[in-house]
Amino acid sequence: MSQSLGRALAILGELGEGPRRLDELAAKIGVHKTTVLRLLRTMQDEGFVHGDANHRYHLGSRLFALAGAALEQRGVRDIAAPHLARLNDDTGETVHLGVYEGGSVVYLDKYDSRHAIRMYSRVGLSMPLHATAIAKVLLADLPEPRRRRVADGIEYTRFTEHTITSPAELLDELSRVAAQGYALDDAEHETFIRCVAAPVRDATGRVVAAVSISVPAVVLDRDGVLALLPRLLETVRAVSADCGHAEG
User: Fold this and answer.
1) How far is it, in rounded angstroms, from Cα 109 to Cα 30?
2) What is the pTM of this model?
């Protein structure tokens, strides 16, 4: 990768976290402000970024268009959509579709709940690998050596008192997830949210995505969330079948 391209991508990554000033970007990327300004002007000309009246830079409309096109090209999202919509209608809870890509787990689709309490999540946002049910499901399908490398490379931020905080603890959890066929986020990322997730498989049997149901703790307790598991498993089996998977 060329140095300029790498810096431009780093700038876009920073802007994905929120608006930034020139000096903030220069400090984060570790180069002089004139270099960052040159890159910003080029990206602004192409519509990838734009600057506001307060001299802060934002992601541009061209990038949003490309992101939308990328999502539309992901077959599993289109295949899963009607099934996820029905699951959302049936349960009234937040439904997510996530994938593991480039070392990160990201939300590919989301259907909001009918509750006033909403999750801070959005399509395209990456999620903690050690503290979310979807991530556990996706990591549990990795070959054992790769699973260990991923676990060793995670920064184990403690979000709540229930958060997994070590590679050994995560690996034990992933073994349980692989054996039981689903994962639970028991208030491990947010104290007021519990999630249950299960895998979507393709024709080869490989896990290509995961679906989760997320519920506010004030609505359902742990047992209540697990009571939604049969409906979730029914959904992922239907999506997997449409992806070409035949249960043996």
Assistant:
1) 34
2) 0.71
